[in-house]
Amino acid sequence: MLIKTRRRWEIRESEATPEAVFTDRRRFIAALGIGSGLIGAGLWPAREAAAQTRDPTADLYPAKRNETYKLDRDVTAEKFSGDYNNYYEFSTSKTVTPASDALKTRPWTVKIGGLVEKPMEIGIDDLIRRMPLEERLYRLRCVEAWSMAVPWTGFPLRALVDLAKPTSAAKYIVMQTFQDKATAPGQRQFWYPWPYTEGLTLEEARNDLALMVTGVYGKPLPNQFGAPLRLAVPWKYGFKSVKAINAISFTAERPKTFWEGLQASEYGFWANVNPAVPHPRWSQADERILGSNDRRPTLLFNGYAEEVAPLYKDLQKERLYA
After folding, report:
1. 10-residue averages of pLDDT along the chain (322 residues)
2. Nearest-angstrom CA–CA distance, 25 and 22
């Protein structure tokens, strides 16, 4: 008889909460006939419908769920996760949806270069259609000590690495977001080191958990989540998951990432989740669950230690958790 032992961060399928029907505050306020602008017009559902119409890959969603990736909590309702995002290209406020709507995600190309056999530029729709899409339930832990649980759709980053065919000299993968000051007002702020740049070692990029995200909640990725292509590395703090990627390169040297360039004493390259290592200005021992008043103890590597701890066994002299 086969006995399967669940990992400590897994729950049964029946325990996961499905995506809530849209009852967010915009629709509520619109139903009451108060407010103005986007809220008063109740345009959130219309915005999502328009986004799906514009996305030539909409027929690929919802993708089949990979049951390997489960959660220790309910999926966060989209009315909360979709309206609470850090996206400094558009605003330092958490509510970035109206501003991020200005970003045109079609046409969109991704440049792949650096230490690869043959540099290329590929359209996002061609890239998505040639990759093995699947849905995964992941936790996301922000460095600001809040967290959520999200049903991402995407493909393993390892598949993109295989497509790029990096040379033996490549040690890191570097990802950058778009640059468009006319569309993204945050990029007009000269004190930020634009473009937003993030990086992983190739060993991290080839880990099974590293995911290139193209959809969420069974639909193409909305702009506020980082459309049309973002990274998800659930064992790291959320700022590592760069949004709206349009350039990927492979290098021999470790890149200086966006937040590392801005404040290296607080935000390092590795940014692995560790409850025992506080941020200089607050504790990381526990976290606020988005959409509730609950707080839970934070787990080492955000609960994914079994999958990723071996990546760092020979790197104990590195500042792995800042």
Report:
1. 47 47 36 37 48 82 97 94 94 93 97 97 98 98 97 98 98 98 96 97 98 98 97 98 98 97 96 98 97 94 98 96 90
2. 9
Task: Count up the domains in the chain and report the number.
Answer: 2
Q: Which domain holds residue 69?
A: 61-312
Query: Domain check: are 147 and 48 in the same one?
Result: no
What's 302's domain CATH number? Answer: 3.90.420.10
Q: Is 103 exposed, middle or buried (0-12, 13-18, 19+ CB in 10 A)?
A: buried
Distance CA 78, CA 259 (A): 27
Q: Tokens in use for 307?
A: 């999958």
Q: Are residues 50 and 65 in the same domain?
A: no
Residues facing residue 213 across a β-bridge: 154, 230
Q: In angstroms, rounded to a whole number, what is the distance separating the alpha carbons of residues 140 and 180? A: 27
Q: Helix (H, G, I), strand (E, B), or coil: what is residue 243?
A: coil
DSSP alpha helices (H): ranges in the chain? 25-32, 37-41, 44-54, 78-81, 97-100, 124-129, 157-164, 202-205, 258-263, 305-308
Those residues whose C-beta lies under 8 Å from the C-beta of residue 42, and which sit 6 or more positions away, are 26, 27, 29, 30, 31
Q: Do 34 and 151 belong together in one domain?
A: no
94 is written with which tokens? Answer: 């958490």
246: tokens are 């349009």
CA separation for the pair 268, 247 (Å, rounded):
21
Confirm whether 107 is domain-assigned: yes
Amino acid identity at 42: G
In the three-class reduction of DSSP (H, G, I as helix; E, B as strand; rest coil), residue 69 is classed as: coil
Phi and psi at residue 159, in whole multiples of 5°? -65, -35
Task: Give the residue from 32, 54, 76 where a domain finishes.
Answer: 54
Query: Does 223 lie in the same domain as 83?
Result: yes
**Cβ atoms of 69 and 137 closer than 8 Å:** yes
